[in-house]
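Tokenised fold entry reproduced for absentees:

. . .
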Amino acid sequence: MTETATYMDGQASSGGEDAIESGLSESKTKAASKHNMSKPTQPEFEDKYEEREYLKGRLAAAFRIFGKYGYDQGVAGHITLRDPVDPTTFWVNPFGVAFSMITSSDLIQVNHRGQIIDGGPVRLLNTAAFMIHSAIHAARPDVNCAAHSHSIYGRTFCTLGRPLDIITQDSCIFYNDHVVYETFNGIVLAEEEGKNIAAALGDKKAALLQNHGILTVGESVEAAVFWFVSLERCCHTQLMADAAAGGRGGATIKIQDEDAQYTYKSIGGPRDGWFSAKPMFDMIHKETNGDYLG
């Protein structure tokens, strides 16, 4: 299947009419209803093998995006995709292959025991990738993609051991939808540590791993990637905002809970994440001429 697919109409917010929280003011409810509109949703497949090939292409594109944005750090970092044919397995980047060089055919398929059962010529598995992602995929049937890397602003913010302040429209994406994992025990090489991270994540879309880096999950590759890029930028924004406010002897202005909740319901759902990532994926396809599909 090519990058072009047939889409079905969907509501602009992630939850349609149900996306309007009962606690919101009447004016916000009416405004949201007035501006509700249709927008595309993910392609659907009758053939699971065709879906697999399409999604592997999206995963390879995700690595190219991470490489472009400088989210690589040596051999650290991984993004996983739950296999649609055998959902007990997932696809991941081979250990030691640069994000900016990964193609669909390079990806490796891993089962729940950590065995590589299919994939490209470099069949090396990052143990930390398996321990973290296998636990998340097992605990969260709704998660089809999980992303983690040692991005510079994310890992810097994670040294503070605190959640994001909701200070911008973009940070509302993570309003009541991210956690801080407050333990650092070195490189995640133990099964128990992976399970602890998954348990801390709970039903949220993102985790700030203290002294480590950021992690995001999504129902789609696109959503997980967009959440990651957004969280990295929110960390960057807050680091700068806190420094600027502190330099003036003040503090940042926080968004009120009702406004944050309203905004979250407009831009923080799975469909919103998928759609918001579309420009990034379109651009990487154009810049690489689809090389990642090889």
About this structure: The chain has a mean pLDDT of 89. The two ends are 13 Å apart (CA to CA). The chain has eight helices and ten strands. The first helix runs from residue 26 to 34.
